[in-house]
Amino acid sequence: MKIIDISQPLTNGTPVWPGDTPFSFSLNWSMEESSSVNVGQLNMSTHTGTHVDAPFHFKNDGKRILDLPLERYIGKAVVVSVEQAESIGPEHLEGIDFDSVQKVLFKTNAWKDLQAFPESIPPIQPELAPFLKEKGIHLIGVDLPSVDPLDSKELHAHHALTEHDILILEGIVLNDVEPGYYELFAMPLALKDADGSPVRAVLIDRRA
Predict the structure, then answer these.
(1) Where do the domains of the chain lie?
(2) What is this structure's pTM?
(3) Closest CA to 107 of 128, 93, 120
(4) Is 46 left (phi over 0), alpha (psi -120 to 50) or beta?
(5) Selecting from 1.10.443.10, 3.50.30.50, 3.40.50.300, 3.40.50.720, what CATH number does the domain 2-7+45-205 have?
(6) How far apart are CA 208 and CA 204, in angstroms?
(7) Cβ neighbours of 102 (radius 10 Å)
(8) How confident is the model at residue 43 (pLDDT cuts 50, 70, 90)?
(9) Which residues are catalytic?
(10) What pLDDT is recorded for position 24?
(11) Are 41 and 26 in contact (CB under 8 A)?
(12) Tens digits of per-residue pLDDT, 171-183?
């Protein structure tokens, strides 16, 4: 069994959406000061690095993080390579066996430098949502900061996925992950009223 960490490490240089809260970590107390413990402080957006979106992120009446079923973030997933794609649609899933999976992770390799926010990304086509729903998929992940174009205000893909009861995982790191079948663990924090949450996402390869 092999555990593959597909999370972005969070550092004080981690890029965020332009205008969003910068990530910062600092020691509030150090052992030199307190003599017994180091205690850190975090300041961040809920959409920093590897994270999940709750529907409340883009719908005022949408579900929040604690409303979402935890089992959606655990289970069998397929990693699909869509490198060089300008957008991601049903045509990129020809030949994929969905019988044993309920999660699809798209490897675009379009976000080349994780220390800089990308200028453009290949978005999810809204028509992918009903296709995935028909195949029994209930979560998608992307190695991108969003499933929509970066300048989108309408967020058509976010809305289409939510209308078809498909959850969204963004900012995963798949550079060294081969396409194929894995087990995904990507649990959000128990943030009661949150619109999103950072996650520690890992894939389990039981063939290794």
Answers:
(1) 2-7+45-205
(2) 0.97
(3) 93
(4) alpha
(5) 3.50.30.50
(6) 9
(7) 19
(8) very high
(9) 57
(10) 98
(11) yes
(12) 999 999 999 999 9
